[in-house]
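call fold(seq) -> tokens
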Amino acid sequence: MRVYNVGIIGCGVISRTYAGDIRAFYPELRVAACADVNPSLAKKLADEFDIPRACKTEELLGDSAIDIVLNLTPPQFHVALDRQIIAAGKHLFSEKPFAPNVAQAREVLALAAQKGVMVGCAPDTFLASGLQSVRWYLDAGLIGKPFFVTANMTTFGVETWHPSPESFYSRGSGPQYDMAPYYLSAIVGLLGPIESIAAYNTCGLEKRRIYVGPRAGSDLRAEVPTHYTAIMRLASGVLVNLNVSYDIYRSNLPMFEIYGDGGTLAYPDPNFGGGAPKVYRKEQFTDPVYRDTQEAKDRSRTFYELPELFPRPKDYSRGIGVLDLAKAIETGGKNRANGELIVHITEAIEGLMISSESGAFYRMTTTCERPEPIMPGGAPDEI
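ret:
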């Protein structure tokens, strides 16, 4: 496979994770240029990660050596910039959310098909070591037939760590766009497409204090709901309870657990690329019935850590989806975070909003296949 040149547009916080991880773990990719509306941010990223060029967006898009453009701008700019990237004949990998609704997602994908370029979208964490290990254990039948999932992204916003948190609370944003995609992609990647959604929303804290960056000490006002609670039914019949929130300081809820008729699989956080799954088997629960011993009682209270079956170069990592896109370009195949999955996850986010605003069930109109699993045992770039 040849080396694919990547251009980054948007040199904010997350760009450092992408640039660093691509350089460290994916030799088939090379970040060749970066751009930002603030030229000093582009120069800073280029200097920090030895990126050959810091330039304007127009210059990056006009560079014939750039194969894939990585869109890391705030969500409100994704659709317009994605159209520019595709119109320039570049393959596209966009940060989430891809679009605010299905109609705009389809427009962008139709333009890509017209131009003959391929498209991928974050989250790509479902391709990393932790969730791919969960996929392997599920498919092997470790907990039998799954029937229920609980997924809880309960945190207190972004204003304690992000220097420009305003975009997370403005129209077209919120936790359903920012964090729900990680959990929705994990659910669909592990268990298949969503069939229907019932949701509610609220705003626990409308006035938010900014703690870091140039506006530290000032306040902003949330323009969107900051907490969503949903029940979803998957096409397989599995039920899912999903909570995504910017309003919870601390919680003891499990972040991600799958319950089957043979046990429970737990995973620490779908926002991260690495994390050891844990299992609790039904036999542990019934052991004390047959053996009235302390050892049996101890086993009945214990989740056991399972090995990850793939390399975990970092806990919090990004870029594997860009590599998967490059390999699909190389082979003429289908990348895993493809248009079909993009539209389905986009509709699920839109469905959360519609159901929570209308008080009615939302019936999904799109579907998708579970992305192909990655075979265990390879190096980080062998996917």
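The chain has two domains: 4-125+317-337, 126-305.
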